[in-house]
């Protein structure tokens, strides 16, 4: 099976938004090899005639009437925020200074 | 009082022999005296529990109608949000967070007058089988403090075995209710997927996660099951159908004429000798009680573990994207004009533990373009094959059974550095989650070679949860006759115990 290099793991970590130390990348690339070899067994029986199942229940869309119901106050909604300002979540800059 | 079943405690409350306040205080005292050794709790809500207990006592005094478990204390797995009470899911990333709302399960518990003692320890975001992945240190098995209490709900199972609570709530994604129950000699039930609302359950793998009751007896689990189950408009995957009559089934414990299918693939090689012998003895007892034992084959179960470790990490990599350091939880590196992306990266590096990162990376890979069909897509096909195996097996048997786990509780640290060895604990519990059906673990004795508890697993078709309770109660009654006292009467006394 495909093996994951350190650079591959670094790319996955970037996609998953996790900063990782060199040691973590090293350990993970070794572990991923072992785990991926084990889980690749699913390919032995996953033939083209088998339909995939994403969910145990027959899913359907669930809707309700569009009426106003009680919800969190702004204070409650913001109560766990690392930072807030003027009844809003305060977040670090998303675009660069020049944008 | 603390050694009684929840049902007996409720009867004593009803008869006016004690009050909920006294009963709650006794459990809080027990927690003070043993939890330094067990570490089942991450947070004990002393004031909140006593206030709730006094409320139930007042209602009862005023002649108000209260529920069958009103005034009985319970331990809540820390993955369930409870308004105003610290909730971490065993993760550092949620340290200090106090949720602004109650999970539906929590609301139902409160409405039923069940007193919530506190939040129990767990593997971080329910990822693990030993509670060693908690950011707040491991929980110890009350049968032997050097061993694991199972996971991810090790705090809930340990609190029951240590008589810190008579009832607990767990959640089960791949076995996190049943495996801890098995290794602590307690009862744990994973209801049919959709049977209990997931609203307010911090999501790990949404198509697999299911909350359920944990207790010391089958009847107690059934009573709690009926409190927390039922349709909820806040959960789009909640089943809109009557709750199975589990209390009636647990009271009757009738297996006469029932066909019990032994799953050939979930026994034999890889299963500890003492686990197998206790399982075989239980089958004989059920046969004596009037059940017919048949063998069934589910050939695709051997691929369940591999499929699970693709599906669960894939869903977790998506679910855990919400921990972005913006709306709740910790925030790291927000200084000197750092970008949002850099803050996210640093927060998730510090906030997530090793197993969580491992699964996020695995899931990110399994879902990435070019690998999706080979990994996630193939795993979804295996899921279909497992469901087909169950459908076929349930044509010949009313319920299916197996040992809950291949071994008894292992030593803390023994498998911590070998993820694959750790994953093997869930080999017999995972198929149930893949198919969304119900599963229960009932204690069936101690393995002769190590004197540790063994669990007997019962699986029933979707929304036929009552069948598990019929079998569980029948087995429990037969074993009680054999032993003369419940299994937990044989647990060693904990240091500092009264």
Would you kindly provide a written description of the structure presented here, covering whatever features stand out?
The complex is a heterodimer of chains A (99) and B (498). Chain A is built from three helices and two strands; from the N terminus they run αααββ. Chain A has a domain at 6-44. By secondary structure, chain A is mainly alpha-helical. The mean pLDDT of chain A is 91. Chain B has 498 residues and is α/β, with parallel strands linked by helices. Chain B has one domain: Amidase signature (AS) domain (Amidase signature (AS) enzymes). Helices cover 39% and strands 12% of the residues of chain B. Chain B has helices at residues 6-14, 20-38, 46-61, 104-111, 154-161, 178-184, 218-228, 246-252, 273-288, 304-319, 340-351, 354-366, 373-396, 419-423, 430-435, 465-483; strands at 41-44, 73-77, 115-120, 167-171, 187-190, 211-215, 259-263, 292-296, 399-403, 438-446, 453-460. Chain B has an eleven-stranded mixed sheet, with helices on both faces. In chain B, helix 4 links the parallel strand 2 (73-77) and strand 3 (115-120). Chains A and B meet through helix 1 and helix 2 of A and helix 10, helix 11, helix 12 and helix 13 of B.
